[in-house]
């Protein structure tokens, strides 16, 4: 089961431009960005009811604030920034949840005795188990993340926004976004590895000292940030690193699959009706 690194599509202008009447622009945004925004809200909020409320609230905010959109970023990025702020506000209103990230040392792959057995054909039952159980593991891990890690990860890995745009949406420095996303990726990999139903094999022995492996892992993370393949020749990577990198690709690709889906028709109709009533 070969896991190809995800390549981010080139950025293109999508959606209505500034000056379009809000009553025209926002319904277009609902159809264009509603499905991904609903997927985003489902992971940020953790349950369907809160996700639906959040999506409706985001589009109503977008309607009221449309005149402030200057076209300096993609309309989707502008919407996702509203969603991120909405999620933070909801968490504060509920008193927050005391969640802690494991220490970085606990997330590193150095002491793992097994790796996911990805050497199976995509058409086999084992490959289907990996795909299904990885989705469950990743979803559960995302929902359990502290919000200051969960929101940047979802914006970066599910919505495939560049690090810089995530930083703009959350008012964070790009380096802070990178640090949080990298740490969260390691946690997703651990969550997949911890799933008992996912087939595994004995982890290959590393060929290098730990510092060399750490440098290779850092290079891999940087490559994932920019949606490109690993920048170093495959012959340099030992079997141990190759397995770990494939698991990271699996986690990232699983995030992208979780972003796919539809906006429930009843929710779409309710949003459009609310917009018309507000006009």
Structure in words:
The chain is mainly α and 279 residues long. It has two domains: 22-98 and 262-278, Orthogonal Bundle (Rna Polymerase Sigma Factor, Chain: A), CATH 1.10.1740; 104-258, Orthogonal Bundle (Arc Repressor Mutant, subunit A), CATH 1.10.10. The chain has eleven helices and two strands. A two-stranded antiparallel sheet has the order 1-2. It is elongated and about 65 Å long. The protein starts with 21 loop residues before the first helix and ends with a helix. The relative contact order is 0.17.
Integer average pLDDT = 87
Number of domains: 2
CATH superfamily of the largest domain: Winged helix-like DNA-binding domain superfamily/Winged helix DNA-binding domain
- Look at the helices and sheets and give the structural class: mainly alpha
Helix proportion range: 55-70%
SSE order: HHHHEHHHHEHHH
- Sheet having the most strands: 2 strands, antiparallel
Q: What proportion of the residues form beta strands (DSSP E)?
A: under 5%
């Amino acid at each position: 089961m070969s896991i190809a690194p995800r390549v981010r599509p080139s950025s293109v202008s999508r959606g209505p431009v500034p000056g379009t009447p809000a009553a025209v622009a926002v319904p277009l945004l609902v159809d264009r960005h509603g499905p991904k925004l609903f997927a985003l809200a489902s992971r940020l909020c953790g349950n369907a009811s809160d996700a639906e409320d959040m999506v409706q609230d985001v589009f109503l905010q977008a309607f009221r604030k449309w005149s402030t959109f200057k076209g300096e970023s993609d309309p989707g990025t502008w919407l996702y920034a509203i969603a991120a702020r909405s999620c933070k506000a909801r968490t504060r209103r509920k008193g927050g949840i005391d969640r802690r990230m494991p220490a970085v040392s606990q997330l590193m792959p150095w002491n793992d005795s097994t790796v996911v057995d990805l050497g199976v054909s995509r058409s086999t039952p084992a490959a289907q188990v990996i795909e299904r159980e990885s989705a469950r593991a990743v979803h559960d891990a995302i929902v359990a993340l502290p919000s200051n890690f969960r929101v940047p990860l979802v914006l970066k890995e599910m919505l495939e926004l560049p690090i810089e745009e995530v930083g703009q949406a959350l008012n964070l420095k790009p380096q802070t976004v990178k640090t949080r996303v990298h740490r969260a990726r390691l946690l997703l990999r651990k969550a997949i590895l911890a799933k008992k139903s996912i087939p595994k094999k004995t982890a290959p022995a590393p060929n290098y000292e730990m510092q060399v492996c750490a440098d290779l892992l850092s290079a891999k993370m940087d490559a994932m940030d920019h949606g490109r393949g690993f920048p170093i020749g495959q012959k340099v990577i030992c079997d141990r690193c190759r397995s770990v990198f494939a698991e990271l690709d699996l986690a990232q690709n699983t995030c992208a699959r979780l972003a796919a889906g539809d906006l429930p028709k009843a929710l779409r109709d309710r949003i459009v009706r609310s917009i018309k009533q507000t006009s």
